[in-house]
Design a protein that fits this description.
The protein is α+β, with helices and mostly antiparallel strands. It is built from 3 helices and 9 strands. The strands form 3 sheets. A 4-stranded antiparallel sheet has the order 6-1-2-7, with no helix packed on it. Strands 3-4-5 form a 3-stranded antiparallel sheet, with no helix packed on it. Strands 8-9 form a two-stranded antiparallel sheet. The longest helix has 9 residues. Pfam families: DUF7695.
C-alpha cells in the first residue's frame, strides 16, 4: 500500500499517519503529519521536511488497529539523531532531551540551548 509521508530534515525520521486522527510528530518534534488515508495535513515549516511516498506492507486495518490500541509499531521510522549546535550533545540522549519548546522551536534540555551543560545531580 502507498502512504504519503514526510521526512524531517533535522532528525531524519520519516513519519506517516496511520488513521484519520493520527497526528504524528517526528522524533525531534519539528514536523508532523495527520489524516491517515482520508487527507494529508502537515505541521511545521515546509522547509524542514520533504514529502515522500512510502510503499508499506501493512493493511489499512492493521494501521488503524495499531493507532486505535496505542501499540505504536508503525508510523514512525526513526532517522539519525542530530547533535545540539550549542553543547554538542549527540545520539539518543540528545534526541530524548529535545523536549522543551520556546518561540524558536525545540531546545536541548541538557544545556538549555546556551551551551552550558546542567549538572542534573547538583542542580536537580
Amino acid at each position: 500500500m502507498k502512504k504519503q509521508a514526510i521526512k524531517c530534515k533535522r532528525c531524519g525520521s520519516t513519519v506517516f499517519s496511520r488513521a484519520r486522527h493520527d497526528f504524528r510528530w517526528c522524533s525531534c518534534n519539528l514536523v508532523a503529519i495527520d489524516g491517515g488515508n482520508n487527507y494529508t495535513r502537515t505541521a511545521g515549516d515546509p522547509e524542514n521536511f520533504k514529502s515522500i511516498q512510502l510503499d508499506i506492507e501493512q493493511t489499512k486495518k492493521e494501521l488503524y488497529d495499531d493507532w486505535n490500541t496505542n501499540a505504536d509499531k508503525y508510523g514512525l521510522i526513526k532517522g539519525k539523531y542530530v547533535s545540539c549546535p550549542q553543547c554538542g550533545g549527540t545520539g539518543e540522549y540528545f534526541s530524548e532531551m529535545m523536549a522543551r519548546y520556546d518561540d524558536h522551536g525545540v531546545k536541548c534540555n541538557r544545556c538549555d540551548g546556551k551551551g552550558i551543560v546542567k549538572d542534573w545531580n547538583k542542580d536537580g
